[in-house]
Structures are given as structure tokens and as C-alpha cells.
Amino acid sequence: MNWKLLALAAVVGAQLAPVEEPSNTPELALLMGDLQRLTHKLALSADAGNAVLAAFYLHESQEQLRKIQTEAPEYENLPVALLIDRLAHPAYAPMQDAVTAKDAKRMREAVNSIVQACNACHTATQHGFIRITPGTEVNPFNQSFAP
Ligand code: HEC
């Protein structure tokens, strides 16, 4: 192989190199990580029957979902913002009602509808292997969730 051919092969090889992942890929995972922490604290607050704290994390979670819709509206051609509108936002309504009523039992039940929405969307976006749980057995935070 002469040098000209070698150079040509290098150029073609570079063009065939795998394209980098879309730039929003790591960003969505980070945004989801924040959402996971807020969801966990919401669940711990609800489990402790702390309506004031649950209302705070409910608001923060909804803000985070809106941030995701703005910053990562699409992920690998999947309509993330649309799925959040359809699957995620409506799942927070029972929690809103429960914290307004300061009803501990309904707050605990409302956690499940939120967690189910997380997992439904993971399945819808080919990430069903990311399974969220309420995670209320242990408090891993240096924070009290008691009312
Ligand atoms: C739009 C649908 C959708 C919804 C709703 C959704 N997720 Fe995700 N989630 C994704 C996708 C897609 C990824 C993979 C992101 C990536 O590969 O960069 C992901 C990744 C994650 C991860 C992995 C990142 C990490 O830090 O470990 C966690 C955790 C997570 N989501 C938690 C949640 C929680 C908690 C909820 C519900 C409150 C939720 N997600 C709701 C689509 C969704």
C-alpha cells in the first residue's frame, strides 16, 4: 500500500468511526439522579406522615420534571418531554391531594403511583432495567423526616 492509499484509508476510517452519543445523554442521567434523590426524600417524608416536608419534596420533584422537559426534551429520538406530560405529571395528583388533606395513609399510597410512573416510563424508553422502589425501609440520609 502506498502512502496516498494509506492516508485515504485513514480518512475513510475516521469517517466510519462510531459517532459520539448525543450530548444530552449524560445530562439526562444526571437529571434523573437528582429526581431519584428527591423522590426518595418524598417517599421517606410521606412514610413518616410529614405532610409539610412531603409537600416540599413534591414541589421540588415537579420542578425537576419540568427542568428535564426543558433541558432534555428528547433522548435517542424518544419524546421524553411528552412522556413526562403523559406518564409522570398526572401521577403526582394523588400526592397533592394527600398532602393538602394531611392524610398520612393516602400519602403512603400516593408514593406508589409515583414510583409506578417512573418505572412505566423506564419501560417505555427501553430502560426497564432501572427499577425504582419507594425505599422507605432505611433512611440513608443525615436528615430527619419525622413531622
Ligand atoms: C421520560 C420517561 C422517564 C420518566 C418519567 C422517568 N425516567 Fe428515569 N430515566 C429515563 C431514561 C430514558 C433514563 C436513561 C438516561 C440515560 O441513559 O442517560 C433514565 C434514568 C434514570 C436513572 C439512572 C440514573 C442514575 O442516576 O442512576 C434513575 C435513577 C432514574 N431514571 C430515576 C427516575 C425516577 C425516580 C423517576 C420518577 C420520579 C424517573 N426516573 C422517571 C426516563 C424516565
Short summary of the structure?
The protein has 147 residues and is mostly helical. It has a domain of 100 residues. The chain is 66% helix and 0% strand.
What does this structure look like?
- The protein is mainly α.
- The chain has a domain of 100 residues.
- The chain is built from 6 helices and no strands.
- The longest helix is centred in the first third of the chain and has 24 residues.
- The radius of gyration is 21 Å and the shape is elongated.
- It binds heme C.
Name some characteristics of this structure.
147 residues; mainly alpha; 0% strand; elongated; binds heme C
Distance between the termini: 77 Å
Largest sheet: none
Structural class, judged by helices and strands?
mainly alpha
Query: Can you count the helices?
Result: 6
Beta-strand content estimate: under 5%
Show unreliable segments: none
Which sequence of SSEs, written as H and E, runs from N to C? HHHHHH
Bound molecules: heme C
Q: Note the overall shape.
A: elongated
Mean pLDDT reading: 90
Counting DSSP E segments of at least 2 residues, the number of strands comes to 0
Q: In angstroms, what is the radius of gyration?
A: 21 Å
Which percent bin holds the helix content? 55-70%
Question: Layout of SSEs?
Answer:
Elements: H1 3-16, H2 24-47, H3 51-71, H4 80-88, H5 93-100, H6 104-124
Helix pairs in contact: 2-3, 2-6, 3-4, 3-5, 4-6, 5-6
The structure holds heme C.
Heme C binds at residues 25, 28-29, 32-33, 35-36, 39, 75, 80, 83-84, 87-88, 114, 117-118, 121-122, 125, 127, 130, 132.
